[in-house]
Each structure stands twice: as structure tokens, then as C-alpha cells.
Amino acid sequence: MVPFLGVGIFGWLPMLAGIAMAMSSVTVVGNSILLGRYKPRFAGKKPTAVINYSSDSVKKAYSLQQTSTQNSS
Length: 73
Known about the structure:
By secondary structure, the chain is mostly helical. It has helices at 2-5, 13-36, 55-72.
């Protein structure tokens, strides 16, 4: 930038840098808002069922996993 605008630009460089940083922040915030509103056209349905595992079923599954790894070795 300096070779094209000359030596007098040095006083304006901090202001230009501040403007560039501000525009970058505005762009990032604007894109994040647009991304939050984005709805894909061909999105599949979200699952409606919620599976809650009890601690007993988790312990049972973990114990089955432990026994299958011990038998295979």
C-alpha cells in the first residue's frame, strides 16, 4: 500500500487497520447470524424418541463388553 500512496499514508495506517478490523468483526457476526437462521432444504427428520439409559442397563452393557473382551483374548 505504501508504494502506491506515498509516505503521507503512515499517519492513516492505524485508522485503516482499525477500520479493517471492525469490518472483519461485523462480517463474522453477520455470518454467524445468517448461519443460525440456515435451514437445509433436504434435511431428514430429526429423531423424536429420546432414549434414557438407566444406570443398571449401562452397567449390564459394560459388563457384557468386559466379558466379551476377556473371552476373545
